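Hi, here's the filled form for the chain we discussed.

Project: internal
Contact: R.S.
Residues: 140
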Amino acid sequence: MTNISVSAPRTALPRFEEAEGLGPQDAEFVRDMVAVLAKHGNLNRFGLCLLHDHFPLAADEVLVETNDVAARTLSVHVEKAHRTRHLKASQWRFVPHAGGGPGAGAGTCQEILLCTTLDLCPGSADTHEAPSVEGGASAS
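And the returned structure, exactly as it came back:
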């Protein structure tokens, strides 16, 4: 089980339809980000994602990504943070003065998406079933 900080309040994100993607006005920002990533040897480790919401999450819920290698599909679902078996965060957001997750500097990052390890995914060589969540995983 991962040690996920769920006590820090989440600031609402824009809905996907309203979130503004990268554009020409962001050229200097992207150049600066590339320079920082290159300086620290992280160009092939980190990138950018568009922060947005499709639906609200409760403070004790996390998004979890699974994949089916054979079908070449990715799926994201909601799990209770304290019950998830998924150990690896794959997306973080910068949040001033919020509790950070494992490996994050205190008050700088908040985990927003976890990924399964391959042995927990349907369609993997090892045929473990994806973990179930008691009480259902609903996004209300």
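Let me know if anything looks off before we file it.
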